[in-house]
Each structure stands twice: as C-alpha cells, then as structure tokens.
Amino acid sequence: MAVCQWYGSCTLEIFVIAPAISMRAGACALDARKRGLHRMASCQVDVMKAVLIVLETAFATLAALLLAGVIGVAGFVYAGVYDVAATKHHNGLTHYLLHYAMQRSVKARSDTVHVPTLDGRARLDSGIALYRQHCSQCHGAPGVAPEPFALGLRPAPVNLLEPGRDWPARDIYWVIRHGIKMTAMPGAIPAER
User: Fold this and answer.
1) 12 pLDDT tier (thresholds 50, 70, 90)
2) Contact assessment for residue 147 and residue 138, using Cβ atoms and an 8 Å cutoff
3) Nearest alpha carbon to residue 134 among 124, 122, 142, 126
4) Distance between CA 97 and CA 99 in Å, rounded?
5) φ, ψ for residue 141, nearest 5 deg
6) Cut 0.70: pTM above it
C-alpha cells in the first residue's frame, strides 16, 4: 500500500487510503489465520499507522484550508473591496446576514426580560408620548412619514408594523432598552461604562 509522506500532495489520497485501510485490515486478518495469531498484532499496528496517516492528512488539509480562508478574508479587507459608503445600501446577502444575526442576538438576550403589564390608559398615553418624542422622527407613525434625515440613514430605519405584529414583546422591549449597534437605533438607557 503506497502511503503519502508529504502532506502537500496528499489531500486527494484520503479517498484512496481510507478504503485501502479496510482492505489491508482484511488481508492482515486472513494472513494471520494462515500463519498463526501472533501476526495479528503486527497487522493491527500496520492498520493503526495507516489510520494515523489518514488523520494527519485530514488535519493538515483542514489547517491549510483555514489558513487560506484567513488570508482570503485579510486580502478582502485590506483591498477595501466592500463599499462602506453610507449613501449605498448593503447588498442582499449582507443585509440578510446582518438582519438574521441581529434577530438571533436579540432572542438570545431577551429571555430574561420581564415585560411589564402594558394595559391601562395611563401606560398607553405615556407610550404614545414617548414614541412621538423619541421614535417617530426615524420610524414614522400611522399617517406620519419619517423625517427627511431618516431617509439617509443606513441601514434605513424599519417600518415598525412587522416587528410590532410578529415579534414577542420581550424582544421589542430589549431592542428599545439596549438599541442596535452600527445603526442609528440608540438604547433608552445609558451604556454601561
């Protein structure tokens, strides 16, 4: 059985070596029966060596791929390929990934939030006043468009109809309380220092 000793040319040999290991084990077992059981230990050592070579080759390949990925990302960042201009929207994939990461982050942190009772006229009036004072400039309101400056924010402030309808109250509360990094959405409490 030919075994690769130099890792640089071995990446495809995993697919050749792995079946060869099982064939070698079968041949060793048959040979051990013919010559006596004392050869079985030698065969097991041969098979273990082959398994170790396959594992070393696999780990070397994974390390090479990881290094290539790191170099690729570093090159992408260093070359300035991604356009960070605030006058342009994110591409579709970037927007999706950032939005998904934000949703998962909020869900992971909002489990401990205790949402206060929201019924009662005084609580509703207080919420409407706070929304008009702090939120409607960017998000708008029913029959009220966002202020012109909000249209230039990137990412653009979302229409709150979808989150208000589909998100649990604890997630909305968490976002209002803590804000969202890298957006114009501030937190309602001062950042901890």
Assistant:
1) very low
2) yes
3) 126
4) 6
5) -155, 170
6) no
The residue extents of the domains of the chain are 7-78, 92-178
Q: How far apart are CA 11 and CA 22, in angstroms?
A: 19
pLDDT digits (tens, 9 = 90+) for 21-80: 555 555 555 555 555 554 555 556 677 888 888 899 999 999 999 999 999 999 999 999
Could you write out the DSSP letters of every residue in 38-96? HHHHHHHHHHHHHHHHHHHHHHHHHHHHHHHHHHHHHHHHHTT-S---TTSPPPHHHHH
Share of the chain above pLDDT 90, in %: 36
Q: Is residue 191 classed as helix, strand or coil in its secondary structure?
A: coil
* Cα distance between residue 4 and residue 105, in whole Å: 46
Query: By CB neighbour count within 10 A (0-12 exposed, 13-18 middle, 19+ buried), where does 144 fall?
Result: exposed
Residue type, 122: A
- Taking 50 as the threshold, does the pLDDT of residue 187 lie above it? yes
